[in-house]
Amino acid sequence: MYDESNKASVEKYSSAVTLSDMEVFIFPDVMYSLVLANIMSPKMWEWKKDPWFEKMAKLNPYRKVLRLKQFIMDKFVFNLDLDTWGLTTKAKELARFSDFIDAETLSQSNALFGYEGDKYYFDIDIRRHFGLDKYNSEVIPYWKTETLEAMDAFRHKEAYPTGAGECVSLAALYAGALFVLGEIPLEQIYLMATPLHSQNFVDVKDGIITNNRRVVTRNMWYNGTELTAKARRALQNERVTVVAHTTGYVHTLYPQATMSPHAYRHLQHRLGQYLKTDVNFGIIANFLRDRSDLQKCFQIVHDCCGKPRYIEAEKAFAYEHGSSAKVGDNTQSSLLHEIDEDEYYTQPFQDRILLNEVESALKGVNFSIDKPDNLNQLKEQLHHTCYNVEQVIDDLLAFCKIAPRLPGHEKDWTESKPISLEGVNSHADVIERLESQRRQNETADLAFMAYRDMTKSPWKPFLKAALERNPVSIAGAAGLSIDQAADKLRLMNNESIYDGTRMAQPDEVWNFNRGSGLEKALCLMNIMCARRPENPVELTGDAKRVCVGIRGGREYLFELTKKAPLPAKHDFDGIINS
Questions:
Q1: Measuring CA to CA, how many Å separate 470 from each of 57, 233, 274?
Q2: 160 or 578, which is more confident?
Q3: Stretch 41-66: mean pLDDT, rounded?
Q4: Are residues 286 and 301 in the same domain?
Q5: Residues 411 and 271 both lie in one domain
Q6: 292-345, pLDDT tens digit by residue?
Q7: Residues 53 and 202 reside in one and the same domain
Q8: What is the pLDDT of residue 417?
């Protein structure tokens, strides 16, 4: 539980406010605190009134997930603009976390500190892929995870027509929304973070993986499309560093795990089932869709006016882009009918395998990839001079089975009391239920910090985050005098992105051009402290207004528009020059 006299405790609770990529990695229980904060949000519960969810209760869990997916896709875009939350330096972050993790370990697990993953990521030049190459080796961007309110507030930012969020934000949003709107029990939702991505495994039907805004069913996982290939990348090429669940977490580097061992074994089993399939003709066709370089070795025959006509496989696959029909399933005949007749030939190609013969040989058969005899049969069926069949079979096996590199099971399993939200019917119910659990479960306690209600959370961690990790407002005001910065803040919309007594951080105020009087005052305080750290800046106020100024110097007043309590002078101890 929070201990203001303990530096590590203050740092952890402060991390629940800013929720950067590094903070989530180092304090894994912070990740689930964001899920709970979203479940506490009245904005999420307000979604239940949307006409889109009017008949939600009549749908099965699988259909509920698919319906929620469309809502999220319409309401949010994926955002990985590395400038959104500003810049920091490696030295600053390493110094901050030196008591928790060493530089070498961090470099193996975080893209900002040198991690590039396996061969795939080296091949695509991961720093350039994510835009990291524009930063030198010392300066790095913050990757901050947004709350639901901050995600929604992107619509106030220039060039964003809707809300937005990065992958961890979307994973946390999905987890909360699956519970509130989809009524999926928390026990069935597992968050999985890799060094470069965050996904959820949802234990409904054959399993569903959420990937940014989309969801991927087990059948989709093997469909060979480009979208699915992107979804597969993290589990194919990276180890999972953190698994978070309502019962706790498992971290690849930490010997202690707080998650229920039973729940973790269940995830391992169910995810293993999801990531493995037998081979049939449909899977062969999907594999060829994924491996377009092999399509030139195949052809398809189609009856046209009672006569056989032949077409190159790559042409048939190309026609899929404008059609709902596909090669390899029961819509294949429809696809072939859609293709212009002049694309067909009257004679077969002598140097290509006839896919129809492969289909006939595999009809009604599922080949187990674990049986050597089955693999030998596949090799015989697919043998051809066009390619190395041994390599093709190896690639097919990799397509059909991914062995996820989850954290090991050899942990010191220290189970925490699971968070229980069974039977809640409103955001107020959630808050009341979590209030009753926060003394027994630190993640529940951290959730109030992520939720930002300053009547239920300590000020010091919030202020530490506000005055140490909000560089956007500082950079944005760089060309302004303090007087001009104060005027700019006063002219901003006086509406906070958070309801009630919840508080935005300075960069949320600056990015979204809005805030309450106290939020604006703290934003100005952040700018003043950064510009002249040697000066003692003070924040005072009464029931109507708040004042920021240098002791004995000019003061800047802001009208209070929230009933949140003002921080006390001692809350700033050790954070600013007082």
A1: 42, 32, 41
A2: 160
A3: 95
A4: yes
A5: yes
A6: 999 999 999 998 877 899 999 999 999 999 899 999 999 999 999 999 989 999
A7: yes
A8: 87
Shared domain for 41 and 170, answered yes or no, is yes
Residue 2 lies in a domain: no
Domain total of the chain:
3
Q: Indicate if 230 and 82 belong to the same structural domain.
A: yes
More confident residue, 295 or 90: 295
Q: Which of 426, 450, 474 is the last residue of a domain?
A: 450
Q: Are residues 346 and 427 in the same domain?
A: no
Q: Is residue 418 part of a domain?
A: yes
| β-pair type (163-165, 139-141) | unpaired
Task: Mark which of 366, 400, 434 sits at the end of a domain.
Answer: 400
Domain that holds residue 376: 281-400
What long-range pairs does 452-457 form, CB within 8 A, spacing at least 24? 452/17, 452/37, 452/147, 452/498, 452/502, 452/503, 452/504, 453/500, 453/501, 453/502, 454/501, 454/502, 454/503, 454/564, 454/565, 454/567, 455/501, 455/564, 455/565
pLDDT band at 108 (very low <50, low <70, confident <90, very high): low
**Residue 111: per-residue pLDDT:** 61
Structural domain includes residue 578: no
Side chain identity at 522, as an amino acid letter?
A: L
Residue 27: the pLDDT is 94
Q: Tell me how far CA of residue 568 lies from CA of 470, 540, 541, 545, in angstroms.
A: 21, 8, 10, 15
Tell me the per-residue pLDDT of 173-203, one tens digit each, with 9 for 90 and over.
999 999 999 999 999 999 999 988 899 999 9
Confidence at 493, pLDDT banded by 50, 70, 90: very high
DSSP H helices in 383-503: 389-400, 427-435, 442-451, 459-468, 471-476, 482-491
> Same domain for 62 and 102?
yes
